[in-house]
């Protein structure tokens, strides 16, 4: 008999009590996936929803910086319970790496992702928001295999450089019949309609724009002030499109 | 306890496999247990027995075959035993590897050339080897 990896059978079970699973992806790095996914989580929580946030960027996790979550530690409870930060259920690889560098090859990224889903015991949630890494490698492909109910929110900045890659991700997701809720144009600093027009061309809903704020980092780590930051109102507006 | 999460995965998977094989009952399950995750077999066996209650697996004899881990450096080719490096780790580091074995790359390096680029050639994970 061929060896069976038992983890594969349990991953869907682990997310069965989560109503909506939304991956914030881009393909491109540095466009604000962590910022938008974390703020969206906070905004949905403020609306009264139960929200989980999973940072799947194993090489460059950063959501914990926005939430000030690096001093916490998940608890064991017949598996691992995510930490809770101001009502957000949060999980990241940093809780296993002591926030040190984790350099590994592709197969091991796959194993880490499957292991994370196998051991993490999420509560019943209205939303699980996933902060995706850049690229279209193991994390994207494994996630698609693990979660059949996955929906994507695409993030781009206003540049042709970013949209070049976001377009490829959009084409891939469409070909694979994975729903795309829409695209958020982040760090917008001009009146150009380039991204909006590109969305029309790709037949993707343009969810709206979020301006570039020079001082945004000043709010990071101060969870009580994040929702008072100037960016929060704009993100709340685009997040209103979330199903 | 992490062993419970893995035991749950084993039971789930074993039930699926038994159904696929059209087994009316399961008398025997053989599991391969890699050294890397340092599974507590007493806890794991207890979890398997508890979680199998009321399933087609209940009452089956479960065999645990532990297999040692071997690591090969991708940089210099050196091969070493996991146990040799593991003994030098602290409790927190051991626990991290217990949960996510790939964090081994954070806490270990090749004893010969210090590279973090190595493969766990054998001894990772829990596998169902046989079910009858």
Key traits:
heterodimer, A: 243 residues, alpha/beta, Rossmann fold, 10 helices, 10 strands, 38% helix, 22% strand, globular, B: 132 residues, alpha+beta, 3-stranded mixed beta sheet, 3-stranded antiparallel beta sheet, elongated
Fold and architecture overview:
The complex is a heterodimer of chains A (243) and B (132). Chain A is α/β, with parallel strands linked by helices and 243 residues long. Chain A has one domain: 3-Layer(aba) Sandwich (Rossmann fold), CATH 3.40.50. Chain A contains 10 helices and 10 strands. In chain A, 49% of the residues are buried. By secondary structure, chain B is of the alpha+beta class. Chain B contains 5 helices and 6 strands. In chain B, the strands form 2 sheets. Chain B has a 3-stranded mixed sheet, covered by helices on one side. A 3-stranded antiparallel sheet of chain B has the order 4-3-5. In chain B, α1 crosses α2. The radius of gyration of chain B is 17 Å and the shape is elongated. Classes of the chains: A alpha/beta (243), B alpha+beta (132). Chains A and B meet through α1 and α5 of A and α1, α4 and β6 of B.
Instruction: Enumerate how many helices of chain A there are, as a single number.
Output: 10
Structural class of chain A: alpha/beta
Within the CATH hierarchy, at the fold level, what is the topology of chain A? Rossmann fold
Low-confidence stretches of chain B: none
Give the percentage of residues in beta strands of chain A: 15-25%
Gap between N and C termini of chain B: 28 Å
The CATH superfamily of chain A is: P-loop containing nucleotide triphosphate hydrolases
The major pleated sheet of chain A works out as:
8 strands, mixed
Number of domains of chain A: 1
Number of helices of chain B: 5
What's the total count of β strands of chain B?
6
- Overall mean pLDDT score of chain A? 95
Strand order of the largest sheet of chain A: 5-6-2-7-1-8-9-10
Spatially, the strands of the biggest sheet of chain B line up as 2-1-6
